[in-house]
Amino acid sequence: MTAAPRVDTTQLMELLSVSLGVYYGDFTVAAASENLTASQGKTLTVLRRGPVAMRALAKILSCDASNVTGIINRLEKRNLVRREASPSDRRVTYLVITPEGEQVTDAIRAKMRVTHDGLNRLSEDDRDQLYALLERAFVHRAADRSE
Fold first, then answer.
1. Exposure winner among 26, 65, 137, 144, fewest CB in 10 A?
2. Which DSSP helix (H) or strand (E) runs through 75?
């Protein structure tokens, strides 16, 4: 009996690319249903984890700070986020999601049917394992980038 061929990094990267493409498409459609761009939706998702400084958000979103200002201005007009000055450094502005922003984020996630359907095809053990693998592969890297 021969062993199954090993999966190499290139194959994993390709599958991850396909998976992220499906997720991003699903997310973009769900965000649009809430009258948001994908960037605005992603901003709310990031802020849902906690307040973030403007500069750090630009780094997380991989865009120029001037783009973040435009995104935040539009979200602020809809009362989905607010700006707060840092208590220790008035030059730093933190962005905070509002309760309305949390509701919109929840609505976007609830409308992501393709993503829900795919994840729901997995057993509970498979979802636990996928979570652990993704966390091990990427979460520590994201924390390193946001500093």
1. 144
2. helix 65-77
Averaged pLDDT for residues 112-117? 96
pTM: 0.84
* Residues 114/26, Cβ–Cβ less than 8 Å: yes
Query: Inter-axis angle of helices 113-120 and 9-33, to 10 degrees?
Result: 140
Distance CA 121, CA 123 (A): 7
Please tell me what DSSP assigns to residue 5.
P
Q: Amino acid letter at 114?
A: V
pLDDT tens readout for residues 62-73: 998 889 999 999
- In the chain the beta strands, taken as DSSP E runs, fall at 52-53, 81-85, 93-97
